[in-house]
């Protein structure tokens, strides 16, 4: 096997060299090596893809649909995205000029950031936040302005955003807003969204709205910021969470056509175009599967309630999730803020895997994240083990 030439080892993108691998994936891989562990680390739905969606992918393959699609994705898929956004949020995006089908929401976020940022720019990110955001901004040669939302019940308030922007100045180019939030599950109300939109508009900024969990809300309706400031919103979404299609890697961008024209170039440089069978499946889900997430959402809500009761029984504080499928839990006081030590010891001694909250930025320190997108039996056993562990360690 070849070993890289010694003189080439220093030849690496310095910005890439300055960021580590995904903290979530690293923890998952580490804990997966522990025999008998119940690993609640990854946000991976435990449901199967709906049958009619799978059939669409199979038919695409059987029809020899094997040639390059348009770079923005097939028109039928983009029409499906238009249909879904109109039906679910009342948002009207032109399939021809205002929508791009991407290789997952991950690529959508990367392409969007690389389209609007120049070296030296800053991006405001409320924390705790999905760990992917930070390295992408760094690789773009830019700086993240992390705003700890823990004191405000894990919500970025308009007042706090105004304070941050006053301090950081004109170098801030965008706010990256994820709601319902990974890792807290916190959803923003219509009033909170409208308040943030006003501040963003007053400061002439983009908002990158990662709304990948918009179909998974409990007792509240998701309200997209694109309803308020569509001229400033880069809307990110996809099929991974709503239809359990994580491995299909289908996401999308919707936004003003001038932005989309530039983002299409970046998207094409990164991936050329998405896979045809995955596009066929996504188009079927969006045209004919708008009710598919209901069963999953009902199951997740029951699991959320179970997790909340379990944490209460253990005397642990948990953020109140009104969306997504994560429990964000304050660790016992005896550990201080050392969430990594708590997660490691619980994995090794109780055989329950979680993600240290510090992986999600400064706002996550002192917490751990569980994914309850797991079977009821696994969750019940994991909470039984955790309760015994906490009783000894607290």
UniProtKB/TrEMBL annotation:
One of its GO terms (molecular function) is pyridoxal phosphate binding. InterPro entries: Aminotransferase_I/II_large, AspAT/PAT-like, NHTrfase_class1_PyrdxlP-BS, PyrdxlP-dep_Trfase, PyrdxlP-dep_Trfase_major, PyrdxlP-dep_Trfase_small. Gene3D superfamilies: Aspartate Aminotransferase, domain 1, Type I PLP-dependent aspartate aminotransferase-like (Major domain). Signal peptide: none annotated. It holds the Pfam family Aminotran_1_2. Keywords: Aminotransferase, Pyridoxal phosphate, Transferase. It comes from the Bacteria. One of its GO terms (biological process) is amino acid metabolic process. CDD domains: AAT_like (cd00609). It is an enzyme of class 2 (transferase). Residues 37-385 form the Aminotransferase class I/classII large domain. Its EC number is 2.6.1.-. Its cofactor is pyridoxal 5'-phosphate. Belongs to the class-I pyridoxal-phosphate-dependent aminotransferase family. This is Aminotransferase.
């Amino acid at each position: 096997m070849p070993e890289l030439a010694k003189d080439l080892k220093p030849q690496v993108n310095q910005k890439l060299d300055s960021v580590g691998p995904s903290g979530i994936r690293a923890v998952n891989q580490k804990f997966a090596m522990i025999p008998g562990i119940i690993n609640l680390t990854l946000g991976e739905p435990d449901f199967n893809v709906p049958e009619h969606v799978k059939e669409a992918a199979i038919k695409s393959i059987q029809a020899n649909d094997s040639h390059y699609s348009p770079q923005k994705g097939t028109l039928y898929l983009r029409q499906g995205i238009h249909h879904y956004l109109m039906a679910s949020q009342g948002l009207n995006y032109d399939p021809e000029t205002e929508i791009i089908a991407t290789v997952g929401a991950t690529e959508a976020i990367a392409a969007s950031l690389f389209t609007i940022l120049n070296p030296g720019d800053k991006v405001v990110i409320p924390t705790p936040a999905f760990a992917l955001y930070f390295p992408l901004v760094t690789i773009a040669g830019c700086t993240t302005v992390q705003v700890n939302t823990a004191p405000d019940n894990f919500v970025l308030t308009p007042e706090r955003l105004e304070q941050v922007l006053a301090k950081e100045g004109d170098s801030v180019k965008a706010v990256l807003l994820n709601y319902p939030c990974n890792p807290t599950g916190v959803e923003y109300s219509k009033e909170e969204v409208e308040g943030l939109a006003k501040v963003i508009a007053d400061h002439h900024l983009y908002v990158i709205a990662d709304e990948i969990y918009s179909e998974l809300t409990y007792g509240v309706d998701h309200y997209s910021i694109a309803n308020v400031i569509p001229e400033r919103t880069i809307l990110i979404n996809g099929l991974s969470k709503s239809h359990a299609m994580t491995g299909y890697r289908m996401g999308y961008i919707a936004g003003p056509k001038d932005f989309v024209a530039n983002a299409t170039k970046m998207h094409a440089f990164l991936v050329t175009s998405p896979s045809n069978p995955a596009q066929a499946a996504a188009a079927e889900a969006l045209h004919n599967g708008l009710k598919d997430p209901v069963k999953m959402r009902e199951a997740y809500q029951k699991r959320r309630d179970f997790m909340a009761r379990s944490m209460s029984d253990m005397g642990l504080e948990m953020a109140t999730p009104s969306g997504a499928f994560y429990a964000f839990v304050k660790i016992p006081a005896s550990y201080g803020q050392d969430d990594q030590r708590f997660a490691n010891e619980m994995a090794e001694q109780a055989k329950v895997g979680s993600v240290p909250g510090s992986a999600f930025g400064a706002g996550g320190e002192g917490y751990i994240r569980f994914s309850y997108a797991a079977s009821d039996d696994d969750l019940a056993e994991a909470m039984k083990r955790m309760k015994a562990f906490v009783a000894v360690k607290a």
